[in-house]
Amino acid sequence: MTKKILVLPGDGIGPEITAEAARVLEALELGFEMETALLGGAAVDATGDPYPEATRKLAREADAVLLGAVGGPKWDANPREQRPEKGLLGIRQHLNLFANLRPALLYPELADASTLKPEVVSGLDILIVRELTGDIYFGQPRGIEAHNGERFGFNTMRYTETEIRRIGRVAFQAAQRRNKKLCSVDKMNVLETTQLWRDVMEEIAPEYPDVTLIHMLVDNAAMQLVRAPRQFDVLVTGNMFGDILSDEASMLTGSIGMLPSASLDENNKGLYEPSHGSAPDIAGQDVANPLATILSAAMLLRYTFQEEEAARRVEAAVKKALAQGFRTADIHAPGATKVGTRQMGDAVLKAL
Ligand code: NAD
User: Fold this and answer.
1) Separation of alpha carbons 76 and 302, rounded Å
2) Dihedral through CA 255, CA 223, CA 122, CA 318, nearest 10?
3) Statement to judge: residues 204 and 116 lie in one domain
4) Which residue range(s) make up the domain with 144?
5) CA of residue 279 to ligand 1 center, whole Å
6) What's the whole-model pTM score?
7) Measured from the CA of 69, which atom of ligand 1 is nearest?
8) How far does the centroid of ligand 1 lie from the alpha carbon of residue 86, in Å?
9) Kind and range of the H or E element at 313?
């Protein structure tokens, strides 16, 4: 079986951080075939298209895609069709990536980076599973219209039971790999769509007898995430609630340069990328933190290739590099050893 990984460095710090993650994947010697292609602003410059046909073809053929980030001021004034973000939305749509997985993990060494008290967040390790292709973000009808001389705006929240079932299964399976606790987040007291969400989660729960399912209303979930976030293991929710809660959860850790993400299709083909953007302010300076991208590569090993042991090795190597005191500028604190992008990659490789 071939194991094809497409690397899309993208823009800004993208090439620097994906280079480090690619070195880590190569060092594992698992027989990956890696190719590189253009996406985002770099693709616009070369071809006029943020998601060119050549990239599209390679993305279709690959088992997994590792992405840096796209965007930057250079392309902000472009027409919509030639904006880097169009490439990102394009590849997500093209690959049918309906499940977004965002871990929020706080390494004890970085507990001071959080805005919350260290005793509240130290050891935090949660996973948010967000549905990515449905809900009020895509529901029809939608628009802004005028009636009797007054404008009104409207959107439609909708989910089919098939959509809920497939994201539910991803979440239950993720919980099975972790601490076997799943919290489904909805607003069933007000919204019928999310009553169906809750009903379907209950219907599939018996397929996963080893996982404990609880339900929480979204307003309470938002509160609990800052009050006592360690009560959670895996959270699953719809597109809009997930958008908000996953950002809230990621900020609990305080260091955006540390957070990976995965977006999966029905066959575990995935797009893996750091949660941060292309950081044009520090691009090309060898100061960006490559750890979110290296941790995204660990998710790639786990979710697309079922290489759990290799994934854990990579995560342990990151932990070790931090424990040894290596820090890029964004997570640097007095007493630590300040390193650049490449040196941080070296430290992880050595720990590996
Ligand atoms: P950003 O995440 O790129 O940067 C925010 C701040 O965090 C900056 O100060 C940056 O230097 C810092 N930062 C980000 N990643 C870092 C890292 N790995 N190491 C050290 N510091 C890091 O967000 P932004 O400034 O709002 O956006 C910049 C560009 O990125 C925009 O063009 C935006 O559209 C794009 N963007 C892309 C994605 C993506 O590709 N998925 C996501 C968000 C933003």
Assistant:
1) 35
2) -40
3) yes
4) 104-259
5) 4
6) 0.91
7) 40
8) 16
9) helix 308-323
